[in-house]
Amino acid sequence: MRLSKHFIPTIKENPSEAQIVSHRLMLRSGMIRQSSAGIYIWLPTGLRVMNKIADIVREEQNRAGAIELLMPTIQPAELWQQSGRYDAYGKEMLRITDRHEREMLYGPTNEEMITDLFKNSIKSYKDLPLNLYHIQWKFRDEVRPRFGIMRGREFLMKDNYSFDLDFEGAKESYNKMYVAYLRTFARLGLIAIPVRADAGAIGGDLSHEFQILADTGESTLYYDKEIESFDLDDLTGDIDDETVSKLQSYYAMEEEKHDAENCPVAPENLKTAKGIEVGHIFYFGTKYSESMGAKVAGPDGNEVTVEMGSYGIGVSRLVGALIEANHDENGIIWPESVAPYKVGIINLRFKDENCTAACDALYEKMQNLGIEVLYDDRDAGAGAKFADMDLIGLPWQVVVGPKGLDKGVYELKNRRTGERVELSEEDLLEKLG
RNA sequence: CGGAAUGUAGCGCAGCAUGGUAGCGCGCUUCACUGGGGGUGAAGAGGUCGCAGGUUCAAAUCCUGUCAUUCCGACCA
């Protein structure tokens, strides 16, 4: 894409309302604009990143055997009255009345709807286990939205729901998601610490939060440093129960629940860091299947109330979390897996025919090779182009100017390390292709 | 929901105490010169001063109300 024809409105100065680095950089690099408190417009590059994250989440869900569908954002109040959460959920739920005076709501989560769908569709244990997911906009009317998209009111979430015949099955479904989550975050280049958690408003017995480490995190974690050395390559292919129990046996607690006196981890092996919650998984048994009557015929012909779990990943929050974990004073540093483009071409001499011709040709070759490239073809100063490209944070920059062209080389800069190498066109395309 | 601020050009801000009809920097437009880290000069465009009332000859400025946004705390993907 040519930058001159793109829509990436960058800002030179820090917007006053943005307090944390990811919010500032998302506004400055032209990824988002605020519409109202906690509600954002996703601009082209922001959307590209979010879509790439969603794709990785989707691939890992599919790999784990979950099946994608899409439920509506607007739900009828009756479902929530059945589960008893309509009154319990409080003001955080955005309530709407339609033209027929029917009570509706903008869904903050989907346990009720999926359970209703399940009970109307599945009648036999033979159809279990079943794990359904969707990636969909949620709305929670937070009292105090803040930190840009990190705590917005409207957010994109992957949520899924597992249905099993018994606890053993449910536990297996839970563990599959546990592994899928670790894999998902690893692919995003994030260290995700699974932290034992309370089930909160969702309710239930077994629950883990996935926290990624970042200085600006909202919670303080204490964890066994062994977690960091765990090799995620072990988690490809079939799920090994031993691996899961080993992972789950590691100590990891939020500050409030951490007891220094009785901590099983020796002080020298205990690490503390700030974390951002990007995922949360729950096993909650029959909490919803019971109240909403989700039963199947078991092998003996008798009805069994199904065992359920639910699992969420904050897809839009991950965009901010990734920036919190990947930035420097000049801007964002995208991991390749989610970068809006892999490489940026900087044309230093717009008015130099040779230089522009070289850039145009290189741009076309990259496009033909399927390399995602953002070409800064604007008539702007070199400094402005460098600054914008660093701000936007593409992993690679190709700097094209008379110096290199005279030598017959292109300069390739690594955004993360700042390392610059001079390469022939062939080597350059080879390296990026 | 308790506490505290702030709303003036796209962004960042000044002006308000002591009322006299709006200004600075960046950005934007045009032209020229520049050209390897936000360059220089010249000429421009852009504002119902959040909104509604009130006081006054006169309100960005004083008063009342209202809306919005942000920050600190308690709560949450």
In terms of topology, how is this protein built?
Layout: H1 21-28, E1 32-36, E2 39-42, H2 44-63, E3 67-68, E4 74-76, H3 77-83, H4 85-88, E5 94-97, E6 103-106, H5 111-121, E7 130-139, E8 154-164, H6 167-187, E9 192-196, E10 206-213, E11 219-224, H7 241-249, E12 252-254, E13 270-285, H8 287-292, E14 295-297, E15 303-305, E16 307-314, H9 315-325, E17 327-328, E18 331-332, E19 343-347, H10 353-368, E20 373-376, H11 382-392, E21 396-400, H12 402-407, E22 410-414, E23 420-423, H13 425-432
Parallel strand pairs: 3-7, 19-20, 19-21
Antiparallel strand pairs: 1-2, 4-6, 5-6, 7-8, 8-16, 9-10, 10-13, 11-12, 11-13, 13-16, 14-15, 17-18, 21-22, 22-23
Helix pairs in contact: 1-9, 2-6, 2-9
The structure holds one RNA strand of 77 nucleotides.
Explain what this protein looks like in three dimensions.
This protein folds into 2 domains: 3-332, 2-Layer Sandwich (BirA Bifunctional Protein, domain 2); 343-432, Anticodon-binding domain (Rossmann fold). The chain has 13 helices and 23 strands. It has helices at 21-28, 44-63, 77-83, 85-88, 111-121, 167-187, 241-249, 287-292, 315-325, 353-368, 382-392, 402-407, 425-432, and strands at residues 32-36, 39-42, 67-68, 74-76, 94-97, 103-106, 130-139, 154-164, 192-196, 206-213, 219-224, 252-254, 270-285, 295-297, 303-305, 307-314, 327-328, 331-332, 343-347, 373-376, 396-400, 410-414, 420-423. Strand 5 (94-97) and strand 6 form a beta hairpin. The longest helix has 21 residues, at 167-187. The model has no long low-confidence stretch (mean pLDDT 92). It binds one RNA strand of 77 nucleotides through strand 8, strand 13, strand 16, helix 9 and helix 11.
